[in-house]
Every structure is written in C-alpha cells, then in structure tokens.
Automatic annotation (TrEMBL), chain A:
Organism annotation: Fundidesulfovibrio putealis
Stated name of the protein: GDP-mannose 4,6-dehydratase
Keyword annotations: Lyase, NADP
Gene that encodes it: gmd
EC number(s) recorded for this UniProt protein: 4.2.1.47
Domain NAD(P)-binding stretches: 7-337
GO MF entry, a single one: NADP+ binding
Cofactor(s) of this protein: NADP(+)
A single BP term in Gene Ontology: 'de novo' GDP-L-fucose biosynthetic process
Signal peptide positions on this chain: none
Top-level taxon of origin: Bacteria
Statement: the UniProt record of this protein carries the keyword Lyase: yes
NCBIfam families: gmd
A Pfam family it matches: GDP_Man_Dehyd
Similarity field: Belongs to the NAD(P)-dependent epimerase/dehydratase family. GDP-mannose 4,6-dehydratase subfamily.
TrEMBL record, chain B:
Family membership noted in the UniProt record: Belongs to the NAD(P)-dependent epimerase/dehydratase family. GDP-mannose 4,6-dehydratase subfamily.
Segments passing through the bilayer: none
Organism field: Fundidesulfovibrio putealis
Protein name in the entry: GDP-mannose 4,6-dehydratase
Gene3D superfamilies for the chain: NAD(P)-binding Rossmann-like Domain, UDP-galactose 4-epimerase, domain 1
Amino acid sequence: MSKKVALITGITGQDGAYLAELLLSKGYEVHGIKRRSSLFNTNRIDHLYQDPHVDGRNFILHYGDLTDSTNLIRVIQQVQPDEVYNLAAQSHVAVSFDSPEYTANCDALGTLRVLEAIRILELTRKTRVYQASTSELYGLVQETPQTEKTPFYPRSPYAVAKLYAYWITVNYREAYGMFACNGILFNHESPVRGETFVTRKITRALARIKLGLQDCLYLGNLDAKRDWGHARDYVQMMWLMLQQDEPDDYVIATGVQHSVREFVQAAAAELGIGVRFEGTGVDEKGYDANTGQCIVAVDPRYFRPTEVETLLGDPTKAREKLGWVPKTTFESMVKEMVRADLRDAERDNLCKTSGFKTFDFHE
Amino acid sequence: MKSALIIGISGQDGAYLSRLLLDKGYRVAGTSRDAQMASMRNLKALDVQERVRVHSASSTDFRGLWQVLEKERPDEIYNLAGQSSVGLSFEQPMETFESVAASTLNILELLRLLGRPVRFYNACSSECFGNTDQPATEDTPFRPRSPYAVAKAASFWAVANYREAYGMFACNGILFNHESPLRPTRFVTRKIIAAACRIAAGSGERLELGNTAVVRDWGWAPEYVDAMWRMLQTGTPRDFVIATGQSFSLMDFVARAFAALGLDHTQHVDTRQDLLRPADIQVSRADPSRARDILGWRAAKAMPQVVDAMVACERERLSAQEIRT
C-alpha cells in the first residue's frame, strides 16, 4: 500500500507541529500550508524540515492562506490528500474582539473554503477532514461538565466564528456524506504554545522573573477555570478520529479543572517560588513568599468584554469510542513548560551577561 | 419624529416593514445593493416607494453603510438583508456567509464604532433549529442543516455577543416561515399558490414538488414585521421566537390551496426526487409564548388563512394580467 498523504493547515502552530511529528512517525507523507511572512515563522517545525533538493521527501511545505480559495483549491488538487487537518485559524480569543472580521474570515469562512475545495475537486469520497473545534463554543456554560450534547453559547467573535465552522462541517458531512469530524478540544498547552496565551505567558514570565530578567507578571481574570491538557496527547486523538469507520464529533479534555491562579502557583512551585496571593479583584497581587516582591498583578486590560469563567470537559465518548485517554498530567505538563522556558531564560541571561543583545519579546 | 433604517428594504419583509413604520409616523430609509437597478417591485406593490429613501449600499461594505448612517442618523436599524433561500445556499455557501453572517458582523462593528444609542433588529431564522421534536423556544439549542442556517446561527450569536459584550440594544427575531403575495416564486409557497391558480384558470399544467412531507409553521409576513418593531420598543433587548404556534405539512398547504380554488390537489401534483435538498428539515414547530407574554404579539393568521389570502391576491393578479392582455 502506498503511503498515506496528509495536509495540515496551520502547520506552523503548536498543534500543527505535534501533529506533523506524529503523522511522520506513522509513515505519512505530510504536507503543510504556511502563510507567507517577512519574518521566519517555522521555528516549531524546523526539526522536521527536509531539504527540497533531495528526493523522496515526506515533509513538504506550501505557501497558502485560509483566506484565499484559489490557493486552497490548487494546493489540495496538487496534494490529493487522504486526510486534511484544518488547524489554521486566528486562535486568540482576546484578539478576536479587536479583529472580528479577520477572525470570521479565517476561522469561519476559511473552514468553508477548505470544505468547498474538497467538494469542487470531487474528493468528498477520498479525503477525510478533521476540523479543529474548541471548548470556547460552550462559553457561558449551560451545564458542567460539557459533553458533545451540551448546547453552545459562544462569548467572543472567535467562538462565534468557530461555531460557524463547527456546524458547516456537520452540514457537509450530512449533506454530501463527507468523512468530516469536529474535535471539540479543550485548552491544550505545551512548551511551544504561543507566548501570548495565558499558560505560556505565565511559565515564560515566571522563568524570567526567577532569573531577574523581568519584575512582574500581569494577568487578567485569575479566577477563570480551564481544563488544560497537553497538545501532544490531543493530536493523537485528531488522527484517531479520522481512522474510525464513521465520522463523528468528539470532546477532547482531561476532565480536570484548574484556575489561572492555580496554574501560576503550580508553575512557580516548579521554580521553587512560593506565591502568596492577597487582595481581591483588580487589587489582587501575588507576592514571592521569600522576598516579599510583588511578582503577579492584575491588569484590567486583559479582561475581556465577555469572559468565559469556567470550562470543564467530559471526554467519556472519546475514551469509549476512540480508546483515547490523555497521558500527561497537569503537573507534569506545567513542569515541562517551566523547564523549557527556564532554559530559554537561562540562554537569554547568559547572552546578556556576555554582552550580547537579546529580545525581550513583549506582547 | 423617529427614524428607521431598513437594510435590505427591497425584499418582502422590507416592504411590509416600511409600510408599518410609515403608518406609525417614522421617517423610513433603506438600503439595497443597487438602488438604481433594483426593481423595488415590492415597495411599489405596497405603494410606499415614493415615501422611503433608498440608498445603494451593500451590507458587507463598512464605508458604504457608514455613509448611509451619517446621512440618516436612524434611531432603529432593521437588518433584513441577505441571501434568503435555503436551497440556493447549498450552491452558494460563500455568498450566503458573506451576505448573512459577515454583513451582520459588519453592522455590529459599525454600531460599536459609532457608539450611538441605536436599537438594532437582526433577522434570524427558524432554520437554525433544524428538526424540532418539541416546539422550539428561545432556549432551544440550534441544530442547523444548511449553509443558510449555519450562517444565520453565526449571525444570531454575533448579535448576542455584542449585546452582552458592549451593552448594545440588539435583538434577534427568530422568525418561522412567513409568507405573502410578495414572496418570489422560487419559494415553494408562492410556487404552489401560483401554479394552483393557473391550473384553476385552465392551464392544464402539473405542479412538481420535492418533499411534501416536511412540516412547517407558516405565518403572515405583514404580521411578523409588527413583531420586529415591538422587539425594539421594550425596555430590555432580548431574542424572540416569532411564529403562529401551529405547524402543518407541505401537503396540507397544497391541499388547502387547491381546495380554496375548488380543486382536488391529488389530481394535479407530482413529487420529484431531484427537487430534494442535500439535507432538509423534516419538522419545524414553534412555541411563541415569549412574544405573546412580553411583546403582546400573537399571529392572527395561521396556514389556512395565509393560503386563502395568498390565493385571493394571486387570482387578482391573474385577472389583472388577463385584462391587460
């Protein structure tokens, strides 16, 4: 049997990188779509790169964009994928309040463009589609924990766009018999999580505070509760969904919930820092228990016009039907993230003390 | 004098809403994608064309809409624009998204930017519910089954989110099917009425239909635009299901139409598989209690009265044509 061909949109992102690694290890020929940028944006997949001048490559990148139908149709026609993983998106909730139209264009219409490309190219019988849906769909949660049957209540332009993407995927499955699945993924993190997402922002900042590269970490809603899993575990499930006999939608979560404050404490503990929280609301502050230095503070500009207070997934269906269970615990995930960010901070510190300039990469 | 802007004024609901608001003493303006080229036959049919100002603007064009808002400074905006055919949405899913979901977002963003206390009505649709085992209320989860319905669901949630995030006075009317003589003939109700009337006049043709087992809640459009207006007159912005509360099968509709003309429908109707949609809603039922309790609104006409009224208008139209020819 010839090797399977997969196409990943959003290959330069956290999930794209982990998924590409997984599929390559399974013998797939992996194609990815990346946006053109004046800056290099492939650092998460550098280790998978193969010189285009050698024969028999199984990792191939294409320039492209979910906002360009012509491009998607051409790439999909060229690649003739057995599986498409649509991971590309404007994936930041807070940014979606600032750029709602762009978010709708990429996340909602982008998904439709992928599905339409497959339909136009008459690949609906051949190509299986994974759509990256999100726990943000539950927003103002209607029940806890959330399952595949829990009604949606989106609370941001991001979630509204993803709601469109979810239902249009269901619709193309029902209308045209496509093998198309939604993975409703709860928050999933890793050392390569984007630096502006709260978990990575915390581990990175605390590591830098530890080394004296930064003074204070400013956060929004410390009470927000999330179900955090490891991205490496979650990409397994994306693949598993497309190997089933029937297409379906699945909640992927750990079933365990922590607050942002607890995440801070877990990450700090990993660095040997005890954090003492005092005060409430916007005046709440976290102090280093040893030095008394204020290392965590609330900045209202990180509040959202509409907050999602709590998310907790029930992954029973994925466990029973896909045999999927997350392997990484919350504690070991936090540990892995902190270790990686501490290494980066140490490198920066070393460069600085040796007289070299490093970037601080502020938000 | 209050002023209203109707985005998508040239359609069925835009025309009836124009008439209603004019009767209430509003200054009424509207938009159409191309005001010069559009036929405005609905506004003409209701004799209101001379009394409304129509601007050319696409609801996906931020600048164009902004200019219209600057000129008109409306107190109320009714968003009725958008590709409105479920069947067509399977062929034109992109355009459907643009005209239904992206345009709603565009209007909301414009209102957010301008920051004026404008009240906003958004035309949502019973299609969002999909099949309803129980009569749908405002709390029934959506289960859309067409690109049209998916786009409408997205527009519904965008309105809800902007209301909650920015405190806007914005309401979704989840309208079930509402008919009138102004429906174009590509809508099945008008297609049935028109064919039945021609058959009654001796055309000898056959009426071809897709799935006649589908169950719908059909109301009278002139009544439904009154519900839209009432939504914007309350103290708190909310979403409302607007329907008659009575559902019938399409075959019931057909039977009533032919019976109103003294005909037996079984003698004139064929069903064809190729007219079926890729995915369709079988049963659509509604519970409009909230509209009754809060808006004091209730549908006077249900399907049989809607059919009778449409048949009466169609016959007038046919005899007027005969006189002309």
